[in-house]
Design goal:
Rossmann fold; two-stranded antiparallel ribbon; globular; single chain; 2 domains; alpha/beta
Length: about 220
Amino acid sequence: MSKVTGGRLGIRFATCALTIVIPLAVLTTSTGCIQQMAQLLYVIKGHKIPPKFAGLEGKRVAVLCLSDASAYGPDTLTYSVGKHVSGKIASGVKDVQVVSPGKVESWIDENGWEESSVVAIGEEVKAEMLIVLEIGSYSIHDGATLYKGKADLTVTVYDIEKGGQVAFSDGPDLFAFPENGRPRIQTDKRKFEAFYLSRLTDHISRLFVAYDKMDSFAEDAMMN
């Protein structure tokens, strides 16, 4: 290849690169275009990230969610998180059967919770795997002016067919979002809490369901 030809190709490549990079730079630096950038990222898909635990495939699974308040019986937080995580597992894991969260909540309401009762719970609802989600120190406030969701999270999977043996565990870990909080004047408590719980259930379900990394990036951009 001649120097002239190589030079022309270099110019063409540089021009193409600038055509792509400049609009992206404008989008990322303009506060009014963050959502457009997020939508663009949905088009540019990455590879699927495998779950940390893939042992739910083909199993009958029950999800139990506990919080500090659930010591006094089922509460809105635990029911909401348990229900949404159950739904994501049901739709995202191959050949899985998920027990109705209501059946698990009813058992806890009548019998209470102790770790030694995992086999009894599993057998009662005919589950092969029992996922226990423990949420502590839940809050959506960060000072007097910001909303910021925070929760200490521990996830444990018990294999009922093996006498309640622990098949997988994750945490305890602090899940906080968004990183810098959100001013209260920009949203109300109900909407922010619904959004935070959506992110929390996404975070939990991705331990068991494959996901696209770009999805998480785009969701964060839409929030900030």
